[in-house]
Amino acid sequence: MPAEGKASLFMLNHRADRSESMHVLADNGLRPLTYQEALGYSVELIRDLTGKWFYLDGVGIGKSGSYVWDLHGRLVEPTGNEAHDRIVRVYAGKQPLYLCVNPTNHGDKRFWLNASDSPWDSAPVVVGVKTKLREAEESMEKCATALERLKRAAEA
Length: 156
Hints:
Shape: elongated
Helix content: 25-40%
CATH class: Alpha Beta
Strand order of the largest sheet: 3-7-8-6-4-5
Order of helices and strands: EHEHHEEEEEEEH
Largest sheet: 6 strands, mixed
Low-confidence stretches: 1-5
Distance between the termini: 38 Å
Structural class: alpha+beta
Strand content: 25-35%
Number of domains: 1
Mean pLDDT: 82
C-alpha cells in the first residue's frame, strides 16, 4: 500500500528495452518514475522486484559512488550507520537511467542506479505511475458513476 499522498505503483511483467518500456507506460496512461520517486517506493520495490531492474525517467547522471537518499529522494553522502535497504550504488554515465533492486545477499548496496550501460538492453519489468491526466480521467469517471446512481435513486 503506498504511503499517503503517493500514487499507486504499477509493475508489469513485460520484458522491454527503454523505448518499448516508455511506449508500454504511455499506452496505459502511466509514466516512468524518476529515481527520486523510485527510492520513495523502496519498500514496494524491495518486496516485489528484488533481483529485477527497470528503466526510469531521464538520461544520465553525474554522480558516481555509494549514496543514501534523503526524505526527498535526493542522493546524499552516507554517514556510515544507514540500513542496507537505504544504500544506493550510483554509476555515472549518459545512457538512460535504470534501477536494480539487489537481493540482501548481494553486497552492501540494496539498489543500483545506473546510467553507464547500453540503452538497448531489455529490462525484465516495466514500472510506472499514473499520469496526472489519467488520474483526472478516473476521477471524472467516478464522479459520473456516482451522479448516475444519485439520478436513479431520485427517480425510484
